Structure prediction request, 133 residues.
Amino acid sequence: MTTISPVLATSYVALGGAIGAACRYQLGRAVTHALGSPGGFPWATLSVNVLGSLAMGLLFGWLAREGGASESMRLLLGVGLLGGFTTFSAFSLELLLLIERGQATMALGYAAISVIAGLAALYAGLLIVRGAV
Prediction:
């Protein structure tokens, strides 16, 4: 595998991220238009997370099968596009890899810490902005 310069690597990630973010926005709009949000359920976010996880599985499987697939493709599509589309796809991949390596306890801890710490950090940020802290 050829090493690419940090500037070119960053460019691939930035380009993919911009495309992924735009795709997330448009899919969210389309899902909300089609389904609305009955009962306040976040169908758009769920759709993005599930689709992003499927795409990450397809990409990871393809990169593994190709065995030396280009680093630029991994950066553009995996880190950039899917990272801009949803970071949940990366979380899902990392969690599955821990499980596949027989590290179920670590996977459970990672999942629990990610969700609990993420919610706590978000709440802390809200409290700070609201001046409650």
Remarks:
- The chain has a mean pLDDT of 90.
- The two ends are 50 Å apart (CA to CA).
- DSSP finds five helices and no strands in the chain.
- The longest helix spans residues 6-35.
